[in-house]
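Hey L., structure's done. Input below.
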Amino acid sequence: MRVDIISLLPKLLESPFDHSILKRAQKNGLAEIHVHDLREYAQGKHKQLDDYSFGGGAGMVMMIEPIANCIESLSKDRNYDEIIYMTPDGEKFNQGMANRLSLKENLLILCGHYKGIDERIREMFITLEISIGDYVLSGGELTSAVIVDAIIRLIPGVLSDESSALTDSFQDDQLSPPVYTRPAKFRDSEVPPILLSGDQKKIDEWREEKAQERTRDRRPDLLKD
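Output:
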């Protein structure tokens, strides 16, 4: 998979993609992540990227020309399965969407800033708009990092144990059960005996029961269907 990200502040994304699972995925040739500085596609002496909104109002708007130039330039080299815009009014990101996007070959992500982008970019180029929650951040860089992490970890071979991703929360529309590790006893707290029994069938039944219980208590909305 290849992911291209268009950003006003590309340095914000250096750290998230240069550590842990995402770094290994790139090193092993399972994923490519390329961050593009939008200012390189701006015109004029000052490389202006934003301007006042027609009709007045507070806040600046990302200009249409630099974004269009960047998207069209990158699209000359490959066909993108999705051109994604990170925006608070986009479709709420969830595990199902992560699963679908992990099957794509080429993704292009546009990070918004200020009061957003010229609406014509959304109409002309964007194929998918995504939000990670009902709140506003300073820009789309951190949200794009969240999306990329959630997607790439699902690619076969990225995790050392591929079954780990299949048992994550939300994969089967419920939360994961509690997990424990050594020592079996810490102060006055002990690991549930069933997990030490060696009876895998009963352990699996316990985990399923606890997953359902935790989902009912904490996220009953996941069980509405």
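Helices lie at 20-27, 64-75, 95-101, 119-124, 141-152, 163-166, 200-218. The chain has two domains: 2-152, 172-223.

-- N.
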